[in-house]
Prior knowledge:
Elements: E1 2-7, E2 27-28, E3 32-33, H1 34-44, E4 49-54, H2 58-65, E5 74-79, E6 100-105, E7 108-110, H3 114-124, E8 128-138, E9 142-147, E10 150-156, E11 159-172, H4 187-196, E12 202-206, E13 210-212, H5 216-233
Parallel strand pairs: 1-4, 1-6, 4-5, 8-12
Antiparallel strand pairs: 2-3, 6-11, 7-13, 8-11, 9-10
Amino acid sequence: MHAVILAGGKGIRLRPYTTALPKPLVPIGDSHAILEIVLRQLAGCGYRRCTIAIGHLGNIIRAYVGDGSQWGIDVDYVTEDSPLGTMGPLLAMTGQLPQDFLVMNGDILTDLDFAEVLRGHRGSGAPLTIATYQRTVSIDFGVLTTDGGQVVGFTEKPTMDYRVSMGVYGLSLATLAGYTPGLPLGFDELVLDLLAAGRPPRAHDFDGYWLDIGRPDDYDRANAEFGSRRDLLLKGA
Length: 237
């Protein structure tokens, strides 16, 4: 099984932590970087190869991870010279990828079974599998429904439930055919193209632990929770 980790972003929302470190290397707990936890998890559930797409401060990631042998996984790299979106970096590595593979962001903490995502994707025949998580959004205002200048409905501080992308995908190589290497390709563009073509992605619903470390508040929460969740996140790793 082969995984691709997207680690080329600048992590602007996580500054000042990412001023000198790439976001996947910010420390969690006393002795682990986010990327190390992810690599341990991948190796623990059977992945033997991983390609890391690097860009901003990528030399630091290379120096920290090396060839991955310390965690039992064979790591190589693709360099993103300019921002290419979520899926754009994959277009430069199609010659070294298997027919079906995992793609994931390098800044998430989750106990999702990455092997199960890829197995489900392979068995489904879908062009793309998206790991999804339910989030509840609370609106701290009274919400009005208006029509023609009149209020026709009112809800006091409603909550809304959504299934959101976790930043983990099962992808088939054929799904990338027709896109031009070197040009940006976002996850949103790929999904909309598939829907327009009548080839809907598959959802892999998950309700365990998931945290997207995108903002300082998320990072603080990750550190606060890691001690109690360490065994869950690193089981078998």
